[in-house]
Amino acid sequence: MLGRSWLIAAPLLLLAPLTPVHAAPPPTAAERAAVLADADDRVLSDEVVLTVGGDGVLHATETVRFDHGSTSDGDPVERIFITRVPVDSTRDRTFAVDNVKVTGGGIAAETVVEDGRTVVRLSGGSGVQTYTLTYDVRGSVAPLPNGQELRWTAVGWNVPVVEATVTLDVEAQVRGINCFAGSPASVVGCSEFRRPKPGRMTLFGQTTMLPEEYLTVAGVLPAGHTTGTPTYVERKTLASSFAMNAVTGGALAALLVVLLGGFFLLHRLRGRDERAEVAETTPLTEAGFEPPDGIRPGQVGTLIDEQADVIDVTASVIDLAVRGYLLIEEAEGKGDWTLRRLNRPVNDLLPYEQILYDGLFLGGRETVKLAALGGTFATKLSQVRAALYVDVVKQGWFNRRPDAVRSRWTVLGYVVTALGVIGTVALAIATNYALVGLGVLAFGLALTLFGKHMPAKTAKGSAVLARTLGFREYLRKGAAEQVPDRQKIALFSRFLPYAVVFDTVGPWAKTVETAGVEGGDNLYWYEGPAEWDLSKFAESMRAFTFALSGALAQSRPYGKKAPKVDVAALGAE
Which residues pair with 42 in a beta bridge? Predict the structure, then answer.
């Protein structure tokens, strides 16, 4: 028997492949008789009289003769009304059962509205008793091209029914009468339907009904006989949850306006760099561009992309070597390098450079191999990067730390994204407006990506950036033909850390490939192995930069909170 399980499975049936299904054969007469014989509770007869009013409301009076058996302490008996049936792949037709009353028999009645059913639970009583149910049904009348169809599942119990009859009493000639027995979707005809005499009355009958089998009656009324209309609801499916409708379309359009217009306004008000008061892109020397205002390579890298990257720290290490604080020694054929501390005062280092220098030579050690940095430099690397952010604010290039600005917007994006996910799930379960939740989700993702563009430079920072970009173009050209070889090496060394930041080491290294001066097989800050000369420097520097960046990145504390830096000592935000 299908009953309640059919209603639960109905939506799944719509998604099932359209393959032949072989239904179980209906119970035989002997099987039905056996069920009736074994049942403790049974309906001996159920006589239903249906009349329809001009407003389309179906009024029912039901006389039930019930055999409670020898005990009265069993589970309640249920009179079941089917109030929701599938119409097509997306809609269900609903019925409303109201004004339920039970009289006679000395029993207690409780009406419960369930998903797709209204159930009257009857408890108490013993032996054979007779009682009456009355109720009203709305939604049983639907329009037809040439009339109105009246359809209602008039009989249904959770116990066997020996005999059921339904009388349709309408003040009009009823055409196309029919009835069905079995499941709510059954197309098997009932035992009997007839007109006892010409006129308005129609009789339907069914015998030996098993638990949760139903008797559905139907007939065609004259057009305009009632003002009743059917009620349809959209079936809750994944597709309907994400359906495009007026609400979701309007909400998505509004979100699009906010997404584009809001981001545009935010960028103009908070994320756009201030204009430089003076364009500073003029060469300062005959040799070409100078680093603007003497700023250091790590500062340049942080200014350009608004991030203190590992490559900025790498360039700062090379800059410390060029400025005479340490010596870089390349091992013979091992692909490894040693950083050697030089005896020079460090009182002129910037705060982030001091942290970097102390981190390289922890505990006062004189040398350190790059391979030994991996995994041991994490705390110092985080402090160097934090100090770089503090430094660019102290220089007046940013009003706020770029990493803090990015974090605020990224966190906000994560929060909106999470709300979008939760909202999408909730709206998909409860409504057909899940697209609104997806719109919020997309907004949150866009906000997360947009956050990286929100750090804004000051007018001073924009002016320094303009000169920095001109300096980068000079290094990309690698042109220093007019500079004497000995001066060329000094100029090359001085600008090399900036070339590392700009990723222009290759073009810039060509300036010293053919220097050919005395002592030109080594640099004062870089010692290569035997048989090494400046023609191999570009390749050596690329390998060194890659190895140093790899060692630093390996020590980067991903997933861990960066240690705190003494902001008071470095300059407050």
Answer: 67
Least Cα distance to 469 among 306, 281, 259 occurs for 281
User: Helix, strand or coil for residue 63?
Assistant: strand
Per DSSP, what are the bridge partners of residue 158?
none
Angle at 88 between CA 85 and CA 89, to 5 degrees: 110
195 CB neighbour count, 10 Å cutoff = 14
Q: What is the pTM of this model?
A: 0.59
Q: Tell me the pLDDT tens digit for each residue of 487-535.
A: 777 788 888 899 899 888 877 777 766 554 444 566 789 888 877 777 7
- Per the DSSP assignment, residues forming a β-bridge with 433 are none
User: And the tokens for 51?
Assistant: 């009349």
* Residue 191 confidence (pLDDT): 86
Torsion from C-alpha of 14, 17, 22, 25, nearest 10 degrees: -20
Please state whether 340 falls in left (phi above 0), alpha (psi between -120 and 50) or beta. beta
Whose structure tokens read 């057009």?
223
Q: What is the dihedral of CA 518, 519, 523, 529, to 10 degrees?
A: 140
> Are 125 and 104 contacting, i.e. CB atoms less than 8 angstroms apart?
no
Tell me the pairing of strands 526-527 and 326-330: parallel
Decide: 336 and 371 in contact? Cβ < 8 Å.
Answer: yes
Token readout for 549 is 């960046």
| Token duo for residue 499 | 């070339």
DSSP 278: S
Measured CA angle at 362 (ends 358, 368), to 5 deg: 100
Helices (H), 98-172: none
